[in-house]
Design goal:
Length: 343
């Protein structure tokens, strides 16, 4: 029997989570679905957890690599090894809601190149909903083959979550992927590097529960990922400059007020300066301000921000993914400025 949908999961050391993820899929999987788990050399009990589920669902394939090649290359390899017409790039710690697979499979009958799946954001324990409708959409929407700007403007911020993506395998494989290895957002590069032949469809119904606070791939180098690699990727895409600037400045790490704001909430420090910013700056002069901001105490950074705001210069954070992807931190920052917080 032909496989319509391959659910591709790249994982590493998620034995504590992947079992529940697989259960949420297997409990509703049909005969035209398969699951491909690509393990990047886990050292925990991931293999045993997956093996237990395979006894319940024979179309679950587990491939363990000798080494971890990074999230981008691992997802790419999982798609290569899949057999379905479509691939759902799914996380190893999130959960499908009941009926999600049937909803997606119905949409796939219309032959879109890309289907984007809505979800809710929950806390780490999955008991509290923080964001009930990630797409902020009330109805489904179709995007024509050439409307890449419209697609990005509406949902680009949501595509930081790879589990939203269901893409035709043939579209994925015929596009450049290696250029985006190491970016942590290979799916965004693949989707937007050229028009989608059969357009895209966004499902407004909330079909997934996404776990916050468990982003293993970003834990050690969040500044590099969010404020250097992601802006670089966005500005490499063939979409309009107006659409790009609505998401992020091309080089936010060069902006004094931007870095000051990040420093005030602990997203930038001397460590990020040494590790990520300094190597990008050639002259001693260009390094002075980023270095000073990185060493500025957070309390001082907050009060400097208040001073700048009081003379009519608002922090230049309107063009940043941080405000859109980290609303809780953003609101805490604004509240701190306007309320004179001292912590």
């Amino acid at each position: 029997m032909s496989i319509k949908l391959s659910i591709c999961i790249a994982t590493m050391n998620r034995g504590s989570f992947i079992g529940d993820t697989l259960d949420s899929i297997i409990n509703q999987a049909t005969s035209d679905c398969e699951i491909v788990v690509l393990d990047g050399a886990s050292t925990d009990d991931t293999a045993q957890v997956v093996a237990a589920r395979r006894r319940r669902f024979e179309r679950l394939r587990y491939i363990r690599q000798a080494e971890n090649n990074g999230i981008d290359q691992d997802f790419d390899r999982a798609v290569e090894l899949s057999r379905g017409e479509y691939c759902w790039l799914f996380s190893d710690d999130d959960l499908l809601k009941t009926g999600a697979l049937n909803t997606v499979l119905r949409v796939l009958q219309d032959d879109f190149s890309l289907v984007l799946v809505n979800g809710e954001h929950r806390d780490f324990t999955m008991t509290k909903v923080h964001v009930p409708n990630f797409f902020m959409m009330d109805s489904d929407k179709v995007y024509s083959a050439g409307d890449m700007d419209g697609l990005f403007a509406d949902l680009g911020r949501c595509l930081i979550c790879i589990c939203c993506v269901v893409i035709k395998r043939s579209v994925w494989l015929e596009r450049d992927r290696k250029a985006y290895y190491g970016s942590r957002f290979i799916h965004m590069g693949v989707i937007f590097q050229q028009p989608l032949p059969q357009g895209a469809y966004a499902i407004s119904s909330v079909l997934m529960s996404l776990r916050l606070g468990n982003a293993q791939t970003h834990a050690r180098d969040g500044f590099l990922v969010w404020y250097i690699k992601l802006p670089w990727l966005i500005w490499s895409l063939p979409i309009s400059e107006a659409t790009k600037i609505s998401f992020s400045n091309p080089e936010p790490w060069k902006d004094f007020t931007y870095l000051l704001a990040l420093r005030s909430v602990g997203a930038y420090s001397s460590l990020e300066y040494k590790r990520s910013v300094r190597p990008l700056l050639q002259s001693v002069r260009s390094r002075v301000i980023p270095m000073l901001v990185g060493h500025t105490p957070r309390k001082v950074a907050r009060w400097l921000g208040l001073l700048i705001s009081s003379v009519g210069k608002r922090y230049k954070l309107s063009h940043t993914p941080w405000k859109k992807t980290h609303p809780d931190s953003w609101n805490q920052y604004v509240d701190g400025l306007e309320g004179g917080a001292s912590h």
